[in-house]
Amino acid sequence: MATRNQVILYSPHFVAARGRGDRAYRAIPPLSHLALAGPLREAGYDVRIIDAKWDADWRREIRERAPHLVAAGVTALTGPAVEDGLEFSAEVRAVAPDVPIIWGGWHATFAANQAAEDSRIDIVVRGMGERTFVEVLDALRGGRQMASIPGITYRQDGRTVSNAERLPEDINAFPPPAYDLIDPARYVCEVRRGVRVANTIFSRGCPFACDFCLDSRKKWFGLNVERMIADVEFWIGWRANHIRFYDGNFFLGKPRIVEFCNAILACGLEQKFRWMATAVGNRVVQMDGALLDLLRRAGLKQIALGAESGSDDLLQRITNKTTVANTLESIRLLTRHGINQYLFFMVGYPDEPPDALEQTLALALEAKKINPNVELFLNFTTPLPGSEVFRVALERGEIDEPRAFEDWSRFDYVHANLSDISPEYVARVERFQKFLHLAFPEEHSLIRFRPLLNFMSWPLRGLARWRLERKLYGWPVEVGLIDALRTVQRKVRFT
Ligand code: B12
Asked: Quick check: CB of 184 below 6 Å from ligand 1?
């Protein structure tokens, strides 16, 4: 009989079919599996990571590996990943019916009971998986009882059993990402000529309390600086010259940040890469000039800030990470120190004060006046399954919760999905954004013109600014004109 010691980990597609060819999408690394593979290997398993974005031939792999498999693992966010992951699970079930199928990740954690009731899933790992996964495999081999493993949900004798929570652990206790199991070149994306971006993450959890986020009110663990530097060097070794740190909140623990910057400078890495990371307004305003200078010298290019809203009333209700004044002060401080920003806003928040939209648009305009290069994103609020705002929206009947696990694949939390957002509200937001982009074209935005066309667009930009000041967004003729100029530009370029 063949010895079984292989674990196959599947990272499903997490966008709809039409978005799957996009190079930037394909460059997102399978971070969850990279984290899980280390502990599994330390426990003696041979691990294969299949990334649906690159490994189209996964059916063949299942057939070939079936006799050696101890288990198959699937990760998933809410949405299309559920369907794709279930397709993989069904195939494993068909080819190797005795191989246990284990799901984990944000969506399975949230919908653990439903997942365990799906015949294509055997065990659900809730929350952090490094230790739990290894313990589950031990139990499957008869080394311990399933009932003794915290953080899992499974079926037993026809009922769903949900063991106690597993407490989050310090990630420094676990091995580094198993990069040797992927082809790193796939995950460095040339977004513009000479700009090669890699993505990584150095922490887990977030202590701030935001009702719209899943990773809220959680104990935070940051990787130590030595490992952060090794990771940066790894991606630079694969020709990345920009690295995006995915951490929900990178700038926690000032001594660690200072140490990280000093290590970058000591190794001369600031010559080799620039970096982007996320912060919260209430912390940025506490950064002194020396720290901001150090960050810039160490290559920090841009900070992403969740500005969320221009309404302090709303902010006070839903988050403790920023206020309007602190968002503005953050923009001023960072701009003064040569660090660009990327601001996220949520519009159409359930039960928002009547003036919230106008206050948000005013804040966005103010941000542009302080720093014309700031990048702004206005998103319609979509309650994320697992968040506080989702729970409330559900209670009030504003959204429907799918009954079966597989139905979550059609759950749209990417587009506006709340019933009380009127078409006029949507149109106002969209027009505002168009005028804003017209009035303040971003460095790399689509609205870039050749000199003559640029000259011609100048009065239109002035008009757009005038409209923004007066909040007059009706009859957007200049937007149409700009679109026409863009078409001309494209034609000129190609003839
Ligand atoms: C990186 C990231 C992204 C990346 C990559 C996403 C991806 N599919 O890989 C990008 C930028 C593309 C992205 C996009 C979005 N994201 Co995102 N993202 C994150 C982020 C910041 C980090 C996730 C991560 O990789 N962590 C590191 C790894 C190691 O941890 P992990 O994934 O949690 O895995 C551990 C456990 O979950 C578990 N585990 C995971 N999988 C498995 C599998 C098995 C078998 C086992 C045993 C265990 C296990 O073990 C792992 C190790 O401990 C999280 C927030 C956070 N702090 O986690 C949000 C988060 C996952 N994103 C979220 C959201 C909402 C989005 C967007 C909708 C944002 C938007 N408005 O566009 C899109 C949706 C994309 C889509 N269509 O599905 C939500 C999740 C919502 C949900 N219900 O699924 C989160 C939680 C943030 C939040 N605000 O609450 N995101």
From this structure: no
Q: Write down the mean pLDDT value for the chain.
A: 91
Question: Is 36's C-beta closer than 6 angstroms to any atom of ligand 1?
Answer: yes
What tokens were used for 364? 């966005």
Q: Which of 148, 155, 150 is nearest to 167 (CA)?
A: 150
> What amino acid is encoded at 220 in this protein?
W
pLDDT in tens, 99-143: 999 999 999 999 999 999 999 999 999 999 999 999 999 999 887
What's the average model confidence in pLDDT over 53-64?
96
Structure tokens given for 436: 């804003």
The rounded distance, in Å, linking the Cα atoms of 374 and 345 is 13
Question: Of the residues 11, 13, 32, which should be mutated to test ligand 1's pocket, given the most ligand atoms within 8 Å of the CB?
Answer: 32
Secondary element (H or E) of residue 8: strand 6-11
Whole-prediction pTM: 0.93
Q: Which of 208, 214, 243, 308 to mutate to test the pocket of ligand 1 (most atoms within 8 A of CB)?
A: 214
Q: What does the pLDDT average to over 387-392?
A: 91
- Per-residue pLDDT tens for 447-470? 444 565 666 667 777 888 888 888
CA neighbours closer than 13 Å in the CB half-sphere of residue 362: 11
CA torsion 333→338→339→340, rounded to 10°? 100
Q: How far apart are CA 189 and CA 53, in angstroms?
A: 14
Confidence at residue 464, expressed as pLDDT on a 0 to 100 scale? 82
Backbone φ and ψ of 455, nearest 5°: -60, -45
Cα 384 to middle of ligand 1, angstroms: 12
386 Cβ closer than 6 Å to some ligand 1 atom: yes
Q: Is the dihedral of CA 39, 220, 11, 238 positive or negative?
A: negative
Phi, psi of 487, rounded to the nearest 5 degrees: -65, -45
